[in-house]
Design goal:
Number of strands: 60
Helix content: under 10%
Radius of gyration: 39 Å
Number of helices: 1
Distance between the termini: 154 Å
Structural class: mainly beta
């Protein structure tokens, strides 16, 4: 090669080196902003330089903001780098903004392959790395991976994820947020979305203002929410979390209706909704419905029509404003400690949440089951449903748990002041205790059964239906079954005005009981051992003269065990009292099928149109029987050892003024009416009207007198 050729080759090599050096410098990370300039309809690649202002493509490692905001046309930007790309926002700005510019077009960013990482380099509100604004759409699909420190959306925005992986993280900035406001929608139909911040950062749906109507829809894929990400609906406007399919797995608090602002500026009527239509939901954090909502007309609701929801954290319905849950299908399983329905206090100021004199409205909670399955149970059988306030706050009323269909199974249910537990259809089972109770002050909880089935039972036969202070339990239809019933607290009231209430174990009451009077058949059935009294078939009523058992029209009190009463029993027209036991069960002493009236507080009045029947009856120590109409019958059956109507002890006796007192037997042995017996004291019987049909009448050797009216009939 001659010298001239050598010099030319040298110049070519030098020129090539310089060009490569320039190209290399151009690809180095810089601190600059980038703007998409190709505002024509179509689909375009990220890596094509002519699509960008200055023909400069963002370079991996750049610091600044990438603006894809030109909305002069509708177009799609396809992220196509083959290597992972990382971009960091500058101070008080975003790393990537999609939408929000002038024009009316829709700007779509598509990430279907590769990895995009957006870091937060600022400290202000806009220092969230990813921002979708008006007219902006972010699509994640295929094998794409998105990592972003903060995700702030406003106005009419859209996020679609049908595949890939999105990791939402945080930086050290206190303003990093997952804030979804405006009228936008985030939809996950596939892939995996992870909320994994390193510090407490909520996801807020409906966060910017009173006109917000933001949606988070899960229709497939998997959403994982860490304990550092409370999910909040409707901070200042309307927010909805809807799950139709897929998996939601959370370990954080879910707050339906929540504002965390320090002033009321911009907070108006809100409507928060958590809607489960399908899929699988698990959450270990607390579920609050109606938390920190300070406009009385605001609503906070959970609705479930399908799918499966397991909630192992505690639940509050109606914390500082109204909160409701409606289950019409699917399964909701509460496995935590306390499910509180109605926990707010009227006029309560919440420190650190609202400034000045702003106060919260009453926290009223409503749980309605119209279909599906609701369970409130855990492995320790300690899961507790509280309806109403445990504190003495009489103004907080309207708290309700309503079983209007479907099936409910619970460990413990407490109904406090201002609370109602209602069964009108479907089936409800409480396997530990249903307590209708009250705290200090007037008024109490209310239990109502108008249809369906309520079972307070367990395999150990120890489940208890208890009416505490000023509580009322009312049965107007349907069926109630309890192992044990207790109504001994002051003001406890039992009303069986329709349907059937069956008690199978040892029970006691000292407060008024009314049976019948509701227009249809009403039965209080006391059942248990049918062979002998062993403590499982015993009902004790000790209310004194101020309380008693009243059996009204269409009312029936039936017992297969021993009924011991130290209060008045009144059987009115159309009322019936029947005590039965198996053949051969009646012996001397305490028996099944026996009525025991003890002390002067105990009395039985069978009025016109009423009916009483038993296998045995003992009145003693001042108890009185009055037959002023209707029918009183004691019957002996074959195999019984001893059947009698016995009056013993001072001032004990009977008076028949109308109707019939009958001692009958279906065996060869008589049924005895014994006046005077083992307790010393004068007893008496009078017949002034009506009739007495006796097979054997004994005047005891310890004092017994009988006076009959010649107009009456004693045989």
């Amino acid at each position: 090669m001659n010298s001239r050729s050598e010099r030319n080759v040298g110049r070519i090599i030098s020129t090539a080196i310089v060009a490569l050096a320039v190209a290399f410098v151009a690809q180095q990370a810089t601190a600059a902003n980038y703007s998409w300039s190709n505002a024509t309809t179509g689909t375009f690649n990220w890596t094509t330089g002519t699509n960008w202002s200055g023909s400069t493509v963002p370079v991996n490692g750049d610091t600044g903001t990438i603006f894809i905001t030109n909305r002069a046309a509708s177009y799609t930007v396809t992220f196509d780098p083959l290597t992972s790309q990382t971009f960091t926002s500058s101070t008080n700005n975003y790393a990537l903004q999609v939408g929000g510019g002038s024009g009316s077009g829709t700007v779509t960013f598509s990430l279907a392959q590769g990895s995009l990482t957006l870091l937060n380099g600022g400290a202000g509100q806009q220092s969230n790395a990813l921002h979708i604004n008006n007219g902006g759409v972010f699509n994640l699909s295929g094998s794409g991976t998105l990592n972003t420190q903060g995700f702030y959306n406003a106005n009419a925005w859209t996020y679609n994820q049908s595949g890939g992986v999105a990791n939402l993280t945080t930086s050290g900035s206190a303003n990093t947020q997952f804030r979804w406001g405006g009228t936008g929608t985030a939809t996950v139909s596939g892939g995996t979305l992870n909320f994994i911040p390193s510090s407490q950062v909520p996801l807020t749906i409906g966060a910017d203002g009173t006109s917000d109507n933001a949606f988070f829809i899960i229709s497939g894929g998997t959403v994982n929410v860490s304990s550092f990400t409370p999910v909040q609906m409707s901070q200042r406007g309307t927010g909805t979390l809807r799950i139709t399919s897929g998996v939601y797995s959370g370990s954080s608090n879910i707050q339906v209706g929540a504002t965390g602002f320090s002033s009321t500026s911009g907070i108006g009527q809100t409507a928060a909704l958590f809607d489960i239509q399908g899929g699988t939901v698990t959450n270990t954090g607390v579920l609050d419905v109606g938390q920190y909502v300070y406009v009385a007309t605001s609503t906070a609701r959970i609705t479930q029509s399908g799918g499966s929801y397991t909630q192992s954290g505690n639940v509050n319905l109606g914390l500082y404003n109204s909160g409701s849950m409606t289950l019409s299908g699917g399964t909701f399983a509460f496995t935590g400690s306390t499910f509180q329905i109605g926990s707010g206090t009227v006029g309560q100021t919440v420190a650190g949440v609202l400034s000045g004199s702003t106060t919260a409205a009453a926290g009223v909670g409503v749980l309605t089951l119209s279909g599906g399955l609701f369970t409130g149970t855990n492995s320790g059988t300690t899961a507790t449903i509280n309806v109403g306030r445990t504190a003495n706050d009489g103004a907080n009323t309207g708290n309700l748990m309503s079983i209007a269909g479907g099936t409910a199974t619970m460990n413990w249910v407490n109904v406090y002041r201002g609370g109602t537990f209602s069964v009108s259809s479907g089936s409800a089972t409480v396997n530990r205790t249903l307590q209708i109770s009250s705290t200090a002050g007037t008024g109490g909880g209310l239990g109502q059964v108008s249809g369906g089935f309520l079972s307070v039972t367990n395999s150990a036969t120890t489940a208890a239906l208890t009416i505490e202070k000023s509580g009322t339990f009312q049965v107007t239809g349907g069926s109630v079954t309890a192992n044990v019933f207790t109504g001994t607290a002051a003001g406890a009231t039992l009303l069986v005005q329709g349907g059937t209430m069956t008690v199978s174990g040892s029970s006691s009451s000292s407060q008024p009981i009314t049976i019948g009077g509701g227009g249809g058949p009403a039965n209080l059935a006391l059942v248990g051992s049918s062979t002998s009294y062993n403590g499982t078939a015993f009902f004790s009523f000790t209310g004194g003269t101020a309380a008693g058992i009243t059996i009204q029209n269409n009312g029936l009190l039936s017992s297969q065990g021993r009924l011991s009463v130290a209060s008045p029993i009144v059987i009115q027209s159309g009322g019936t009292m029947s005590l039965t036991s198996a053949a051969g069960a009646i012996t001397t002493g305490i028996n099944d099928g026996q009525l025991s009236l003890d002390t002067a507080s105990g009395s039985l009045d069978v009025q016109a149109g009423g009916a009483f029947s038993a296998r045995s009856a003992v009145l003693q120590n001042g108890a009185r029987l009055t037959v002023s109409g209707g029918q009183f019958t004691v019957t002996r059956v074959a195999g019984d050892g001893a059947n009698e109507l016995r009056f013993t002890g001072a001032n004990t006796g009977f008076a028949v003024s109308s109707g019939t007192l009958s001692m009958t037997s279906t065996s060869s042995q008589a049924t005895i009416l014994r006046l005077g017996g083992n307790i010393v004291g004068a007893t008496s019987g009078t017949l002034s009207g009506g009739a007495m049909n006796l097979s054997q009448f004994l005047l005891g050797d310890r004092g017994g007198t009988f006076a009959g009216d010649s107009a009456a009939d004693a045989t």
